[in-house]
Specification:
The complex is a heterodimer of chains A (306) and B (373). With 306 residues, chain A is an all-alpha fold. In chain A, 72% of the residues lie in helices and 1% in strands. A two-stranded antiparallel sheet of chain A has the order 1-2. In chain A, helix 2 runs antiparallel to helix 3. The termini of chain A are far apart. The model of chain A has no long low-confidence stretch (mean pLDDT 88). Chain B is mostly helical and 373 residues long. Chain B has one domain: ABC transporter involved in vitamin B12 uptake, BtuC. Chain B is globular. The N terminus of chain B is likely disordered. The chains are: A mainly alpha (306), B mainly alpha (373). At the A-B interface, helix 4, helix 10 and helix 12 of A face helix 1, helix 8, helix 13 and helix 15 of B.
Chain lengths: 306, 373
């Protein structure tokens, strides 16, 4: 019984990690690391909650989350791609800014509420028959709409990236931008549009934490999970299917820490359970030998360099 | 050569920070960026119906109202300068130490641990022990990041980020059981004995001798980077990793050493906060100090002198900002917004500086070409 609950929670917690790491894979395949991912997750969580709370509609919440994500992505894209500034530096600036901004605008909108404001989280939609299968039925066929969407997005993302001309353009932009340029394709445009697409997904992933899971917004709601999605992109070798596997593993670690904390198991202190996903990231990063890093990852494109 | 090495050489970040050092307007650019950042934050204040001019006037009159507040600016600047150095020092080697926060936490833990457990010692012995243990704790935590970079070619950015969360877990665990106050009510330690307090520099204020130590450390960082062979190697690795390797520099040793020193700086900031200001360790305090250090290092172009000045500026913003927040309805998150805007404008100014420098060197080349004809 505990295993079925754990598995269901693991699949649930891996949802935003899947969406976020898919977004990161697309951006990094064009040569841009979205270091602002943590901040965009946070803004997405904020946007999702505000939209859902004010309108009463989950759809509007998710749309607002994606819009806010795209706005942050636009700033990030202009500074790193068009103005060719350093991605890690710019991303860090946006992360600090996002933390201040989300808290400030929450205060502007809602003042200081006596009780935390809540919305009803996204309901799970059991799929008839399939959700009746023992153990895995509850885990895979009784989840909310974002989880189903994530499971559709990963194979679709794989197909688009490796089986279509558009995917080829995206991959080439990160491997050999000069060749892409001489084929008459605008490198900066490919990168910028991909970053916008990715930040829309990141915003949606962030919204999962506020309206898909907890039903409220706090400023530490993301707590480094954006970085975990970033790490899964590395560990999944810039491949959506690898990332799917990675997201499930990390979702399981996240779920295990929640389940063990609430079950009254006292052998390992809570704090270390919370740290499991981060320790796992460190171990996995060290253990991974073969990397398929996009050749110009993190390097702005300058026409006719040298 | 692996793909990853190629990637770091092309980005040219190391060459660009060096070029900016020489750019004649070292002070003007940051000042303009700060002004624009504050102006943009002023627009945010309008959202809550506050007149930004009134707010800023109050902020600066508060910050410079009396000796206590002015001294407090420097007291607040002390740990900020150190976490700024933690990022800036590694940045000179084009390494990214995003984990200053975690190294700071472990420095705090080490300092408070020594202060509590060795409280029978006189101050002359106890203070140096606390200082060294905080540097050692932060330094080892940092060196681990450098080691994974050197040994496994792991992304130092990712590992240092993750190590912060692990450090936070360690601190929270220690605060909940072994180091918890005797009363056992809150996740915090007891107040440390007076013999472990850093003596104050200006009487009746919070400014302590730690500020002088921070200045000395900044000078030390400058000295290491520009006056020693080690510093030359560090900057060479930062500028062009392949050239450095061909010149016979052991880059792996540099990775570990740089992270060791960087982490030690951040750990020392923990000693300053625990023994100088708080005199105890409370759960979840100063959660932004690592990120602010990054902002300070970027504002100061990763140069120790620039970092000291930016640290003092951020200190002033904090002191004035906190007083404004306490005496009005503006939420404290406005301080984070100000810092974020300032950082973004600094990055935009980097873009303009790069452009100007490119234009200047083009002109020089043209002039030289004409001269030779």
């Amino acid at each position: 019984m505990i295993w079925a609950g754990l598995l269901a929670r693991a699949v649930q917690m891996s949802t935003p990690l899947m969406i976020g790491s898919l977004a990161e894979i697309y951006a990094e395949r064009t040569g841009v690391m979205i270091i602002a991912i943590e901040g965009i997750f946070l803004l997405g969580a904020w946007g999702g909650f505000v939209g859902a709370y004010l309108s009463g509609s989950m759809v509007i919440g998710i749309l607002l989350a994606m819009t806010v994500g795209v706005m942050a992505g636009t700033v990030y894209g202009i500074v790193t791609i068009r103005l060719k500034q350093h991605q890690i530096v710019t991303g860090t600036a946006i992360n600090i800014f996002a933390a201040g901004l989300a808290l400030y605008l929450y205060r502007v909108l809602f003042g200081v509420p006596l009780l935390p404001l809540t919305v009803e989280p996204l309901r799970s939609i059991p799929i008839p028959v399939l959700s009746g299968i023992p153990v895995i039925g509850k885990a895979f066929f009784d989840q909310n709409i974002l989880t189903y969407l994530a499971f559709l997005l990963m194979p679709a993302g794989f197909w688009l990236l490796f089986r279509t001309p558009l995917g080829l353009t995206i991959r080439s932009t990160g491997e050999n931008p000069e060749a892409v340029d001489s084929a008459g394709i605008n490198v900066e445009k490919v990168r910028f549009l991909t970053v916008l697409f990715a930040s829309a997904l990141d915003g949606m992933a962030g919204a999962f934490y506020s309206i898909g899971f907890l039903g409220l917004y706090t400023n530490d709601i993301i707590g480094g999970r954006g970085w975990i999605a970033f790490a899964i992109c590395f560990l999944g070798n810039w491949n959506p299917l690898g990332a799917l596997l990675g997201a499930l593993v990390f979702g399981f670690a996240d779920a295990a820490s929640i389940v063990i904390q609430t079950s009254g198991f006292r052998l390992i202190p809570n704090e270390f359970l919370i740290a499991i996903p981060y320790i796992l990231t460190i171990v996995a990063t060290i253990a991974r030998k073969q990397f398929n890093v996009p050749a110009v990852l993190g390097v702005p494109y300058v026409k006719e360099r040298k | 050569m692996s793909k990853r090495d190629k990637q770091q050489d092309l980005s040219g970040a190391g060459e660009r920070i060096k070029a900016r050092d020489k750019c004649g307007y070292m002070l003007i650019w940051p000042l303009v960026s700060v002004t624009l950042g504050l102006a943009a934050s002023g627009l945010m204040m309008l959202l809550l119906g506050h007149n930004p001019f009134v707010v800023y006037l109050r902020l600066f009159t508060f910050a410079f109202r009396d000796t206590y507040n002015v001294a407090d600016i420097f007291a607040k600047a002390t740990p900020l300068i150190l976490t700024g150095l933690a990022f800036g020092f590694a940045f000179r080697a084009t390494l990214f130490n995003i984990g200053g926060q975690g190294q700071f936490y472990l420095g705090c833990v080490a300092a408070v641990f020594c202060a509590l457990k060795l409280n029978f010692l006189p101050a002359v012995l106890l203070l140096p022990i606390c200082l060294c243990s905080s540097m050692l704790a932060g330094g080892c935590w940092g060196a681990f990041v450098g080691y994974t970079k050197a040994r496994f070619n792991a992304s130092e950015f990712l590992i240092s980020m993750m190590s912060t969360y692990v450090a936070l877990a360690i601190m929270n665990f220690l605060l909940r059981s072994p180091l918890k106050e005797v009363k056992g009510e809150y996740p915090q330690t007891d107040v440390i004995g007076q013999n472990a307090w850093i003596p104050t520099l200006v009487p009746h204020t919070r400014l302590h001798w730690g500020f002088i130590i921070a200045l000395a450390v900044a000078f030390l960082a400058y000295f290491i980077l520009w006056k020693t062979t080690l510093g030359f190697r560090i900057r060479a690795v930062g500028m062009n990793r392949n050239a450095a390797r061909y010149a016979g520099i052991d880059e792996k040793r540099i990775f570990i050493l740089v992270f060791l020193l960087s982490g030690a700086f951040a750990g020392l900031a923990g000693f300053m906060e625990v023994n100088g200001i708080q005199h105890m360790l409370v759960q979840g305090f100063n959660p932004m100090i690592g990120a602010e250090g990054i902002g300070i290092a970027i504002l100061g172009n990763a140069h120790p002198l620039g970092i000291v000045l930016s640290g003092i500026l951020f200190g002033a913003l904090k002191v004035g900002g906190n007083l404004v927040v306490q005496t009005s309805t503006i939420p404290s998150s406005i301080i984070g917004i100000m810092e974020g805007f300032v950082m973004l404008f600094v990055i935009l100014s980097y873009f303009l500086q790069d452009k100007l420098m490119a234009r200047r060197s083009k002109k020089e080349i043209k002039a030289r070409g004409k001269g030779s004809q």
